[in-house]
Amino acid sequence: MKGIVFTEFLDLVEDKFGLEVLDKIITQSNLESGGVYTSVGTYSFSEMLQLLQQLSAHTNISIDDLLLVYAEHFFGVIEESYPGLLATYKDPIEMLSSIENHIHVEVRKIYPDAELPTFEIVEKTQDSLVLIYKSSRAMHHFGLGLMNKTFEHFNSTASIVLEKLNNEGTEVKFVINKN
């Protein structure tokens, strides 16, 4: 997993929960990196999982809800760092349907060894989209949060239904209907 995911997560924890909580979740986790990350480094997903589990234990917020909050933060990073990418799109459905063929292509230019989830388009209309998310990591709520922020970015709303296709959450169907 790319380091930017870790560095931004730690920034979020410090901003939302304070330096003391950040220090606790790092020291109470068994991190091969020691909790020291660079944005361009590559680190084990197990470290992110440990940090999420520790933060959940300290805050009594579910991991899924923490991933939603983190996605909102991360979308802000994308807005600041890559405004040209977002300006390419005029509509949230258009943007979400281009994850695989455009957005992930651009991400791979910056982070060639990034392990990204796949998004298969099952059905697309002007106001709806059905996607299948597949990943070795169960971070579908991070994806859900990014989708929510995408609609917010375009001053729009949608109902997004998430359906786990397996118990691990590594395969999920998103049914998106623009309001």
Question: How is this structure best described in words?
Answer:
InterPro entries: H-NOX_domain_sf (IPR038158), Heme_NO-bd (IPR011644), NO_sig/Golgi_transp_ligand-bd (IPR024096). GO terms for molecular function: heme binding. This is Heme NO-binding domain-containing protein. It is a single chain. With 179 residues, the protein is of the alpha+beta class. The chain folds into 2 domains: 3-61; 67-178, H-NOX domain (Alpha-Beta Complex). The protein is built from 8 helices and 4 strands; from the N terminus they run αααααααββαββ. It has a 4-stranded antiparallel β-sheet. Strand 1 (118-124) and strand 2 form a beta hairpin. Helix 1 packs across helix 2 (19-27), helix 2 (19-27) crosses helix 3 and helix 4 packs across helix 8 (140-153). The protein is globular, with a radius of gyration of 16 Å. It starts with a helix and ends with a strand. The relative contact order is 0.13.
Distance between the termini: 34 Å
What is the string of SSEs from the N terminus onward?
HHHHHHHEEHEE
Computed Rg: 16 Å
Sheet of most strands: 4 strands, antiparallel
Stretches where pLDDT is under 50 for at least 5 consecutive residues are: none
Quaternary structure: single chain
Domain Heme NO-binding: 2-160
GO molecular function: heme binding
Protein name: Heme NO-binding domain-containing protein
InterPro entries: H-NOX_domain_sf, Heme_NO-bd, NO_sig/Golgi_transp_ligand-bd
